[in-house]
Amino acid sequence: MSAGKAGRRASRRRAVGRGPRPLSFVCGALVPAARSGPGRVQWPPGAHSAAVGVPFVRSGVTPTVGLVAVSRAPVAAMRKHRRVLTTGALRAHLLAARLAGPVATSREASLRSYRMFAARDPRATLGLVPQRGWPEPELLRLMARRCGVSSDPRHVAGPDVIDPQRTLEALDAFARRLGEAAAGRVAVLFGTGHPDRLLGFYGALADALSTAGCEVLMPAQGRRVDIATRFGVRTYRLEYVGGVALVREAGVRCAGSETGAHSHSPLPVRVALEAAAAAGGPLPGLVVGDHGWVCGAGQLGVETLAVADTDDPAVFVGEAEGRVSVAVPLDDAACAASYGPLVRYVLNRACLAR
To answer: What is the model's pLDDT at position 230?
Structure first.
């Protein structure tokens, strides 16, 4: 190699070292590579919290959310993800992480949920009582408009599809409503039936609204809830992690030692709202979450913002009938770390980023 070529290659290597952080793949998506040093968050994470299933960082100060002090650990990695994406970059991330585009949810699972909803099966209605009948063909057309799935009833197999443009438009509407709630100091309740995947996402939003002056409510802490499952009626305990409600099977492990159970039931949000009312309030002006948390709250007249997959038709029917303000079409069971860029995008659009 000539001395001139060697010098040019060394110069290029030095220039790369001075430039932006390289990108690494996390859950199939590009995110900033890890950077070490005091007070730095590792991203991609070097460790994960067994308690919450999201990237772990040093907990630091514990803020007060509502009336209970909670740790920042479940949300710190999400909030510290400073690389705010442009709309184009977020679209690319949605596709790379399979949050939109072809998703992990199968067409068979989606169509089965549509049939169950049309038959008013409570496993699919999630606590929503439709205002009218929704035959399966009409439901399929609604999901095509709201999510971007195929409207062709002859398409019965393979991965389902979410239009990333619809996801982006819904995220913008979601962010606008969060910003309005923050400006109005609205009391907010967060709840998820996907704590292993979405706890960090909702926790970061709860932390931002609490910092903005909203009261993040945590009613019925520790209350027992009997929920019907395919294995029979099981008793769960209502808990909060980072200001986000979830359920754990009673007696399995101590609080904080696991992420919680996957649930579609509207019973936990009914128990939480009943407890808040019995205590004399405040009552939430907004419920943010998924599955039965938003459908159950929307059915009771509380404004809701939701994340929903292609096999969650109840949420989109709720939006069409005016009981869900915004439903974001999104794969709701992807790798937890892949939702980090969405946090920064939403908080930036809501003028809540720090």
So the answer is: 82
Q: How far apart are CA 107 and CA 147, in angstroms?
A: 13
Mean pLDDT within 224-252: 91
pLDDT of residue 84: 61
Q: Which of 258, 255, 326 is nearest to 289 (CA)?
A: 326
As given in the structure block, the two tokens for residue 116 are 């169950």
pLDDT one-digit tens code per residue, 28-84: 444 433 333 333 322 222 233 322 333 222 223 333 333 333 344 445 545 544 566
The answer to whether the CB of 94 falls within 8 A of the CB of 73 is no
pLDDT tens for 172-228 read 999 999 999 999 999 999 999 999 999 999 999 999 999 999 999 999 999 999 998
Look at the block and give the residue holding tokens 């969650």. 312
Question: Locate tokens 């808990």: which residue?
Answer: 239
Other CB atoms within a 10 A radius of the CB of residue 231 amount to 6
Q: Label the pairing between strands 244-249 and 286-289.
A: unpaired
Q: What is the 3-state secondary structure (H, E, C) of the chain?
A: CCHHHHHHHHHHHHHHHHCCCCEEEECCEEEECCCCCCCCCCCCCCCECCCCCCECCCCCCCCEECCEECCCHHHHHHHCCCCCCCHHHHHHHHHHCCCCEEEEEEHHHHHHHHHHHHCCCHHHHCCCCCCCCCCHHHHHHHHHHHCCCCCCCCCCCCEEEECHHHHHHHHHHHHHHHHHHHHCCCCEEEECCCHHHHHHHHHHHHHHHHHCCCCECCCCCCCEEEEEECCEEEEEEEEEECCEEEEEECCCCCCCCCCCCCCCCCHHHHHHHHHHHHCCCCCCCEEEECHHHHHHHHHCCCCEEEEECCCCHHHHHHHHCCCCCEEEECCCCCCHHHHHHHHHHHHHHCCCCC
